[in-house]
Amino acid sequence: MLKTDRQVLVESKPESIRSLYDKYAGVLLGYVQEIVKDRKLAEDCLVRIFCQLSEEFGDENSEGPRNWAQLQRYAKVKLVSYTAVSGRAIANGETFRLSDDPYLAALSAEQKQIFVDIYYYGKTVAILAADLNKTEEFIRKTLKEAFAILRKSGEN
Questions:
Q1: What is the extent of the structural domain holding 118?
Q2: Which one of 55, 72, 98, 130 has the fewest beta carbons within 10 angstroms of its own beta carbon?
Q3: Tens digits of per-residue pLDDT, 72-105?
Q4: Measured between alpha carbons, how far is 125 from 150 in angstroms, rounded to an integer?
């Protein structure tokens, strides 16, 4: 049977969405679950992430994620769109628990906010400094202190 151009493209394109799902859905579910700390919510997020991925990059000419690192970065960006509210992030009326981690409890409110905004939400130092009306030097210093506290609490 003669294969159509679309069939050949889908079969020969290892970075297709189906292939990404087959290879990385389980790993991505674990990654998301570590962030949201809720299995059901992580599953819902995984479904939403792949639906959005399909909508944005479903066309065979689109350049979407092709490997685990790119897929993880894409998922992180999608999870970043959730707004931090008192240690929680809210998306579409659902609450994600980001800071139930006992290590983050050792940080001051300011250190936690800076750490979470940079590490979880991917904000740059410059953007965060502008958002908080602080200097970039202050943000870097506070982030460095937060990492020192986290390292020390991890050793215990």
A1: 101-156
A2: 55
A3: 888 887 776 543 433 445 444 444 455 456 777 7
A4: 19
pTM over 0.70: no
Confirm whether 7 is domain-assigned. no
Query: What number is the average pLDDT over the span 21-31?
Result: 89
The answer on 105 and 89 residing in a single domain is no
By mean pLDDT, which of 17-31, 82-96, 100-114 is the weakest?
82-96
- The verdict on 44 and 112 lying in the same domain is no
Claim to verify: residue 46 and residue 91 sit in the same structural domain = yes
Domain count across the chain? 2
